[in-house]
């Protein structure tokens, strides 16, 4: 009654609740998606989607077809696994990555992923965690390597590793090896964006301890944070291992009397069809992250 491709189109349109996002996912056009769905509705004689809802929603008939299409696609995925065809998976995974991972072990991860899935293309975006969370929820990306933990409906997560937060500065800016909470209001701090843990915690703890709000410069680019610190504009607070070797050679690590929780990174990946491919990629990320020195 329906071709495999039509069921795949229907599944991803229902899963992503968007004709345009399904088109992006399947590397086709929105009119093509709409035509296939319309043809399926013509064969059934009933609407599969309530197009007046924002975002689109499945009708009662659509929900029945969704259950069966998901089962069928999962059976195909299981068949490929049993026949040891997983390494022949062809397609594109849209991956979001935190810059800390870019600076540490991303290259090794991509190399290992290419070895395991030689026909897999990775469409990568480097962004901050809040933006990647929105992209996961809206279906713009399939998988993310980012800060956590947090709950994302329809996604599983796997903890990769922790990175300690460290203060770094050029010797001319801070003469001692200790960056105390009392001295923080006098020296600008350069760290991650305002909606991240390092910024909010620093602001809160310093104000609580001495009643003054510190001067904090924020940036989503670690390379920019490093450049600002090298120029003597402030003390950098970033994850251990995130700075370049050249930057580390010109700066020193400062001890502090405030206790900072480490940054925890997780792999978030889609459940459902092709979930096993994403899970294997998350496993590769875990192996690489665990073997990488900070």
Question: Can you walk me through this structure?
Answer:
Keywords: DNA-binding, Plasmid, Transcription, Transcription regulation. With 294 residues, the chain is an alpha/beta fold. It has three domains: 2-81, Arc Repressor Mutant, subunit A (Orthogonal Bundle), CATH 1.10.10; 92-160 and 264-289, Periplasmic binding protein-like II (D-Maltodextrin-Binding Protein, domain 2), CATH 3.40.190.10; 162-261, D-Maltodextrin-Binding Protein, domain 2 (3-Layer(aba) Sandwich). Helices cover 45% and strands 20% of the residues. The protein has helices at residues 4-16, 19-25, 30-44, 60-82, 99-104, 106-116, 129-138, 197-210, 222-230, 245-250, 275-291, and strands spanning 49-50, 57-58, 91-97, 120-126, 143-147, 155-163, 165-169, 189-191, 216-218, 235-239, 252-254, 263-270. Helix 1 (4-16) packs across helix 2, helix 2 (19-25) packs across helix 3 and helix 6 (106-116) packs across helix 11 (275-291). The termini are far apart.
